[in-house]
Amino acid sequence: MASQHIRVLPVNVANKIAAGEVVERPASVLKELLENAFDAEATHVDVEITAGGRRLIAVSDNGQGMGRDDALLSLERMATSKIRDVDDIEHIDTLGFRGEALAAIASVSRLRLVTCDAEGRPGTEILVAGGTLRDVRDIGAPVGTLIEARDLFFNVPARRKFLRSYQTELSHVRAQFLVHALGHPEAGLTLKVDGRMAYELAGGATLEERIRELFGPGHEDRLRAVRREDPEVKVTGYVGLPELNRADRNEQYLFVNGRATGAPLLAYAIREGYHSLLAKGRHPTVFLFVTLDPGLVDVNVHPTKKEVRFRHPSAVRDAVIAGIRDALQLEPAGGAAGADAIEHADEPLRAAGAESALQIEDLPHARAFKYPRLPVSGAERQPSPGDRPPLAEGTDGAPEGSGGAEPLSAEAADSLGSTPWAWCRVLGQVGSLYVVLETEDGLVLMDPHAAHERVLYERFMKQFQSGRIQTQNLLMPENVELAPKDALRVRKSLDLFKKMGFGIAEFGGDAFVVDCVPSAFTGASMKHLLVEVARHLEEAGGRGGKERWREESITQAACKAAVKARDRLTLEEIERLVIDLARTDMPYTCPHGRPTLILTSFHELNRKFGRE
Ligand code: ADP
Ligand code: MG
Questions:
Q1: Cβ-defined contacts of 263-266 (< 8 Å, 24+)
Q2: Residue 306 DSSP symbol
Q3: How far apart are CA 157 and CA 149, in angstroms?
């Protein structure tokens, strides 16, 4: 009757269960082993993997190593040299501290540990299988530690079944290796996969050199250095220009006090840092190192330390946002100023912080009514007194169907979440090129060519993707003679051109005749367009084979050619352009990734003038 039901589990069963938390797959073993190596102050680490890590994961380091007693203890659960009491958890400056990893790995693999410290004693070799100690003996070994974990989950069939394909596991392993290689550019690292050397990274590198080595030359041209030092938080590293965006976060490397980690807060700060530079669902490339007093970070929130928490989240968030925006040379994202400013549309705008509006007597009046505000966000549906009505219909820069300045329906306005400002006005032009605008946030310079390219690009891509390309027949079909190499490239893409709405045919030799173009590109010189396309396709190189990439090349080239063809724009066209640009998905860059707009916020001006 009183039979006992609750039993204490044997140690190795308990370990096996606990292992489930730490060891999910080969890459998690690698993570723990690499963290241990760096905690032991290794300056060189060799990693070897076979069969995606199922057969072998080996990490050998030249760190401090262990004496025999420590080596035996290191395999026990809850055994760590890194903290002594509960208070130490409050300021952890090592990667490990839970004392779980080695015990966990040893309980679900056949583990061999060879280690030797610098005390001049012989090294130690320990063999463990499925958590059971098999052998301990002296062995000659260099100072440092080698751990080989073989046959992962050999004694836990249920877990083994959950391992994915060799390729998938390998890609996780590789990602883990990259993270540590980036986190420790000063260390030399190698990775051998199935007996073949995959990476051989020399130590003593800077982060920049390491990035170049891992991602190839050229990558760093599209990165900007981050250097932000706030009183509590330092943020360094590199962030990619918006053009380096992708659909996943696989190129986001985040480190908090040297630990590769994540935190919802950091993800949010990155999104904010790139505010409106990236379309929804696209993620930038970042290599960010957040450094702060270890007492201000809680690393003990997740068994694999995948996430951390901050004691002062807003300090971290602000530093990351500001670091990114400084690096991309953007001003802080505008606050909620927009909505109020609209209500006073006919007053001259006052820089925030300026006590009273200042008027200069002898200058021609630059009052609001001379430079009417253009509503760009759709938020302003009622034109203010004194404002000109938003642009007259159908200026010639705007083919029909382009989503013009007509007042927007409520849903349409809602979907325009990303418009940079609610209104702006065109003040003039400088350097016979740049357009000077005032918005509620500050002063904006616009490169009209880049802006126009962005507008045409999105206009055409939308039509193309929806399968409704508007085309226009040319009154006079245009004959274009190309250089033989260019002609070859164009010829190869003829079908694609046709699919994209161009009426183009071969005309003998290296000549082509064009009699119809998508309306987005009317006015472009066909010769320019085709030469430009050929150049783009050439740059595409190996990637040129991919149809989607070729479509983009052709579109970008066509936009460029169409814009080049126009060397005069009326004020109305410029106004139109500003509105069209503000309503694109990615108003801040042209399709080639160059900036279209440079904002100097009032906040920034006030700061520069020492007003705040
Ligand atoms: P933790 O890293 O959380 O302390 P581990 O189980 O990963 O726990 O390691 C247990 C202990 O073994 C560490 O605290 C450290 O003293 C020792 N150790 C593990 N790996 C190494 C290594 N590569 N070099 C030197 N010591 C190591
Ligand atoms: Mg550890």
A1: 263/307, 263/308, 263/309, 263/310, 264/307, 265/310, 265/313, 265/316, 265/317, 266/290, 266/316, 266/320
A2: -
A3: 17
Phi first, then psi: what are they for 114, rounded to 5°? -125, 125
Q: Crossing angle for the helix pair 484-492 and 526-540, nearest 10 degrees?
A: 80
The span from the CA of 504 to the CA of 479, in Å, is 10
Mutate to test the pocket of ligand 1, among 15, 39, 64, 105 (most ligand atoms within 8 A of CB): 39
Q: Which of 57-66, 156-165, 402-411 has the lowest mean pLDDT?
A: 402-411
Min mean pLDDT across 89-93, 150-154, 365-369, 447-451 is at 365-369
The alpha helices in 480-546, defined as continuous H runs, are 484-492, 494-499, 526-540
- Per-residue pLDDT tens for 47-65? 999 999 999 999 999 999 9
Secondary structure of 271-289 in the HEC alphabet? HHHCCCCCCCCCECCEEEE
What six digits make up the tokens of 32? Answer: 């723990």
Rounded-to-integer distance, Cα 516 and Cα 535, Å: 22
What's the pLDDT at 304? 64
Mean of the per-residue pLDDT values of the chain: 80
CB-CB contact of 476 with 372 (8 Å): no
Q: What gap in Å lies between CA 112 and CA 139, rounded to an integer?
A: 12
- The count of C-alpha atoms lying within 13 angstroms of the C-alpha of 75, restricted to the half-sphere facing its C-beta, is 31
Q: Is 80's C-beta closer than 6 angstroms to any atom of ligand 1?
A: yes
Asked whether 303 lines ligand 1 (CB < 6 A), one says: no
10 Å Cβ neighbour count for 542? 6
- Distance (angstroms) between ligand 2 centre and the Cα of 50 equals 22
Instruction: Tell me which ligand sits closest to the C-alpha of residue 75.
Output: 1
Going by pLDDT thresholds of 50, 70 and 90, the confidence category of residue 594 is confident
CA pair distance 59, 33, nearest whole angstrom: 7
Q: Whose CA is nearest to atom 16 of ligand 1?
A: 81
C-alpha 141/C-alpha 484 separation (Å) is 65
- Extract the tokens encoding 176: 């883990």
Phi and psi for 39 in degrees, rounded to 5? -60, -30
Quick check: CB of 332 below 6 Å from ligand 1? no
Amino acid of residue 65: G
Ligand 1 near 305 CB (within 6 A): no
Largest CA distance in the chain: 104
Residues of the chain by 3-state class (helix, strand, coil), percent to 5: 35, 25, 40
CA–CA distance, 268 with 229 (Å, rounded to integer): 20
The conformation of residue 348, written as its DSSP 8-state character, comes to P
100-141 pLDDT tens trace:
889 999 999 999 999 999 999 999 999 999 999 999 999 999
Residues in the chain: 612
